[in-house]
User: Fold these one by one.
Assistant:
Number 1:
Amino acid sequence: MKADSKPTRREEMTHSSGKGEQQQPWIKLEQLLENSPDIGATNRQNARKYRTISPARQSLQAEVSEIWDYRELVQNLAWRDLTTRYRQTALGISWALIQPLLLMIVACACFGRMMHNSASDVPYPVFVYAGLLPWQYFSSAVTRASNSVLSVGGLMKKVYFPRVIAPIASVIPPLVDLFVAFILVLGLMVLYHVPFQAHMLFAPLFVVLASELALGLGLWAAALHVKYRDICHIVPFFLQLAMFASPVFYSTNAIPERLRSFYFLNPLFGIIDGFRWSITGTGIPDSRSIMVSIVVATILLVTGGAYFKFTEDQFADYV
Amino acid sequence: MSNVSIKLANLSKAYKVRPKRDRGFLSGKLLDLLRPASGQHGEDLVWALRDLSLELKHGELVGFIGPNGAGKSTLLKILARITKPTSGIGYVNGRIGSLLEVGTGFHPELTGRENIFLNGSILGMTRKEINSKLEEIIDFSGVEHQMDTPVKFFSTGQYTRLGFAVAAHLESEILIVDEVLAVGDAEFQSKCLNKMLLLTGEGRTILFVSHQLDMVLKVCTKAVWLNGGRIIGTAEPKTIVSKYEHWVNSSDKMLPVV
């Protein structure tokens, strides 16, 4: 760990851990304002212009409205990510298409014959590609989100902005990749004579669920990553395992009935099955797996957000 | 209109400093569990700021001076909300724009123009605000011919110019300038100092950290001397700078009472 190479470790202290000797007589904000009445009068109404500095945490409401105030920064950071990622590349944005395409070809070469019967009523290439789309989005969003806080670390030490903007902004650029890669699935469906159906309109719902799950995990990983650099070893490994535990290359039918409810504990099941169903119409997702996805994603998002908020005060000192 | 822009009362900031252990994080934690007492006693507190009280008014150009480790940057970081104080309270009346280092928030792959927008939004400007000031910013930076070049091809000086140009056009009531102007050339430095005087004329407050005492003397309306996390004195730049210089050159390093 980097911090250990220095002779000392700096750590921010919260007020509550202050020892007796350091405790200051607390000055109430009102008291401070009373001493200078001219400020109190004008600025109590103008809360946006006027800020308190204290060891206390911001209220959740204030936090949310602040994130809203900074929505342009979210846009700009996401846009920066997108434009710089494909700058100075020969193939540009088509990388978003090449990766799932190559993965699909490899999967067809490896499992194509084996999965031919068990897969479903759509040709295996369409089946795999439609499953790869949400998977690739999820894995790239989680990876980015988990690195997000560290990668804006330099900035964070110099300018204030709500820290949570970093992981939020990092789950957006992969959406554009998903959209680009999505165009090809339509081509494949035409090629393999898979009919277009109205339930395609459900696809965005599963994408929203995927980004909720990715952000939830990402918030945990990003906050932990600041203090524990183990995260950069854990996340790629975890994602590798998750890919095999999720129905990207195989269908739910391939899993023995008695093991299914165990597999459905994986929140990605509902998302990937659901997305593939809405696009290609194959393999109607089990309602249990979708419930698990919704519940797990929500729990992760709430707890991840809480943990992030709990630790963010220390970020600037640890990065 | 209110006149006070920053008011701090008994502000302190402590960092925990732990003696180094030749172990990984986890084994260190385990050791702490085995010997809980050592974990507590091994921690030392370093006070970067201690009982700081300060009141600044709109339109003041305040120079902060003091040796390295005096707490100048910590104070500015607390004001800019980058880190939180350990105790004490304060309030800031207005938006704070900080220019803490060369090209804060620039992305090397983006062009100068794109970076103006990115940097502006990082500092809290809206797209509209930036658009309305774009010409002015480009003009002020003096690198207009390079606006469509990625900033990785900029020189350090050009970087600073652009960075200062964006921050100076931020409509913040308070601007933090932390030892950055030293990079620019003489012409740009005087341009920045003039801009700073102009801004304070409009009622903005500028917090200026510099080790170039002549600059502090030239532009500041007030100087604050920090040492060891405490304020040694707040007064006219002339008084503070001469006492500070005297202290720096003295052999006994006895702090004067200002």
Number 2:
Amino acid sequence: MYPRWLWPLSAIPGVVWLLLLFLLPLYVVVGVAFGSVDPVLLQPIPAWNPADWNTSWISHVLDQLLPGNVFWDVAVRTCEYVGLSLAGCILIGYPVAYFVARHASRTKSMLLILLVLPFWISYLMRMLAWINLLSPGGYGLRFLSATGISSVLFHLGVISDPSNYLGGQSFTVILGLIYGYIPYFILPLYASLDRIDRSHLEAARDLGASPFRAFWHVTVPLSKTGLLGGAVLITLPMFGDYYTPNIVSGAPTTSMIGNQIDLYFHGGPQPTIGAAITILLSAFLMVLMLYYIRTIHRASREIPA
Amino acid sequence: MSQTLARRPARESEFGYTRRLRGWFGNQWGKPRFLVLVTWGYIVWSIVPVLIAIQFSFNNSRSLSIWHGFTLKWYTSTDPNIDSVFHSAELRGALEQSMKLAGLDVLIATPIGVLLALGLARWRGRGSGASNFLMLFPLVTPEIVAGVSLLLLFSQLLTFVPFGTVAQLLGHVTFSISYVVVIVRGRLFSIGPSYEEAAADLGAAPATRLTRVLLPLLLPAIVASAAIVFAISIDDFVISQWLSNGANSTTVPMEIYDATRATPQPSTDGIATVIMVITLLSVVAGVLVYRFFTRGESGRGSAVDDVAGFGI
């Protein structure tokens, strides 16, 4: 119907742009991580040819990742923070998405707008809001101590100082991560819950399943795509996050792997080590990235052309 | 109705309070009070902190936690001792930089993305699969990886690209294109080829089909993606920070970040509020234009549903 050359031609600008400014830069990171460092200027000397690759930086970082070394603690802490934040997002997000998809009728569009709203409010502003709340005399701090939540958290050992939430508390960092990323988790989950055909559930109930069994054996498996998709969608950026811990804590005791990368580029003169950590982090996250790409790819093919 | 269903004979032997507890959690035909509570609790928790931050941008004191009465001085004051949003060189500069980057990003990323979406949806030759894959990757790459890679690109290889606005813009466009593609391609699939086939049967030349049939049909998606690109660019912190050249290219999120690491002032809340209002206005405008262009279409849900289902 159209000339054969038209569609490849129309894709060319975008493909060239992405090759030059997305793929090539990733190769530059590899080149720097496998390159060497100028002994005088301390500037990285990238190795472009794989034959010249020098693996000493990568193995240095891998060494430091062994138990007991510098990066081990950071890596474990990062996994803990991401895992706990993800658990928090699921615990809060699943009931919310479920309610809006299944039970809200008259209020549904209003609820959806309220769920989408945080998307359009700058992440940094939402973190700033917590600084307001948790700084001395802030509403949040007063609320937490008036309701006794602070002392409960203190006695449980969750926070080490009930009057100082912003000085290196893991609790605050996890709270910040959940607050920051949960909107991105709820929406895909909502979309997949909303798509479930109600008659499956009615069938399960007619066949004698209890509400809980019906939920567990029908709703949960059918919402699996949205659940996994949302989880991957927030896990990936959380692993690369460095600004959330910096804003709500700022202490080295809560630093994540992203903070290490940030430090090696912005704090110290060792971009080569930073590049090596970046490569290892990307390799670690590759499985999740490929899983998510496959999901989007499949979803886009399922729409009838 | 919930009463009759909840009182099934098998449950009669249970104690009253257990049954009431089951009613709260388990009775899926009744009113799910537990879910109502969690949902509204979540919504209050997600919105109220931001409202309080907005409130303190009007605080008649430097404090961000104790209310001293209403003032507009953090927005409009020309007093040199007060860094007001519209008169402090630093804050004004950040606002202008954010707006400039977002505007240029929309102008560059939208056409490239629309063309790429058309190409990827209809090109079936060698390389189309790989291009598809390449297009999806920026969506899942953690921003810090993107920041590191572009920083090293511009400092090691393409050293003629200056850090600051140019580098930031190149970075923003790179990570906006894929959003345009995903949105426009979804629309392409949902309109299908039949309109263009009809136009061809009626004798329209390829150029006419593109400009008079396909383009008007794609317009809602183009508008929606432009609004989303604008919002993403305004909100972006990591790429702007990694590719900045210091004070001249500070954006609003960078300004907020720097302030939270030093001492945030009511004007920090103020600049965040201004940028939030701009983003919300652009999104509302996008939704209204989308509604206007898709009026009378059946089947697909609202713009909110489209945004909600986006990505999965």
